[in-house]
Amino acid sequence: MNVSKPRYQQLKDFIIEQIASGQLQPADRVPSENELVESKSVSRMTANRALRELHDEGYVERIVGRGTFVSDFRSRSDLLEVQNIADEITRRGHTHTNRVLRQSLQHARGEIAKALHVKQGTDVFHLLLVHCENRVPIQVEDRYVLASFAPNCLEQDFETQTPSAYLTDIAPLQEAEQAVRASMPNPAIQQHLDMTGGEPSLVVIRRTWSRGRPVTFARLHHPGSRYELTGHYTPPGTSRTASGDVVQLENLRQ
């Protein structure tokens, strides 16, 4: 293990890597404190802290009297509130389709390298897709993915599985940073989203983290007249009484 990190963090990284690589699957039992003390030569306090923080961060579930088990990240939304657009559309009872415009290997330059915290020239995958709801285009996904994080990205069929779903399957996402801004789209975005001249777009700029580093950077463009972002906040200890999707579409053109 890396001696430059605290022992509990080394232990966490070891277990996270086992989860990310598939050696530990959802619902698999994670080594107990006693087993970690013996196999990794750490103190009980170190093992306890590692497992406790993994639980707090959503990687594992600790069940009294049974042990510690890998969480099923695919069915959880509390670890990272980043919605898969295909799921959003399906929940509304509508049909999601998309088309892939670009799926290529590039070298990170400028703001892409800066956003992903990598050196200029680092390998990244560039994905460009148009997502549609009931055949009406509602999002252009312009995404960069660190190649070392998802080495098989070019082999995926993103017309049957969205990049968001694929990346979540590879490894649990720990954090997300988002900014939302209005922008006048360039001609290519206007064409992809079937927008009229002079119509602004709503752009979500998103960076996601996994294994302690940023792994994807995306710009998500939406037509301003056909898309809105909504949210719902419930204070701690208060029951939620209203339903609310993160994203809603109203008055779709037929």
The gyration radius over C-alpha positions equals: 21 Å
Query: What's the end-to-end separation, in Å?
Result: 58 Å
Major sheet description: 6 strands, antiparallel
What would you give as the CATH superfamily of the largest domain?
A: Chorismate lyase-like
Name of the level-1 CATH class of the largest domain: Alpha Beta
What is the CATH architecture term of the largest domain?
3-Layer(aba) Sandwich
- How many domains is the backbone divided into? 2
Give the proportion of residues in helices: 10-25%
Instruction: Please provide the ordered H/E string of secondary-structure elements.
Output: HEHHEEHEHEEHEHEEEE
CATH topology heading of the largest domain: Chorismate lyase
Q: What is the strand tally?
A: 11
Number of helices: 7
Uncertain regions: pLDDT < 50 for 5+ in a row?
74-80, 242-254
* Proportion in β-strands: 25-35%
**Widest sheet, order of strands:** 4-5-6-9-8-7
Describe the global form: elongated
Structural class: alpha+beta
Tell me, rounded to a whole number, the average pLDDT: 83
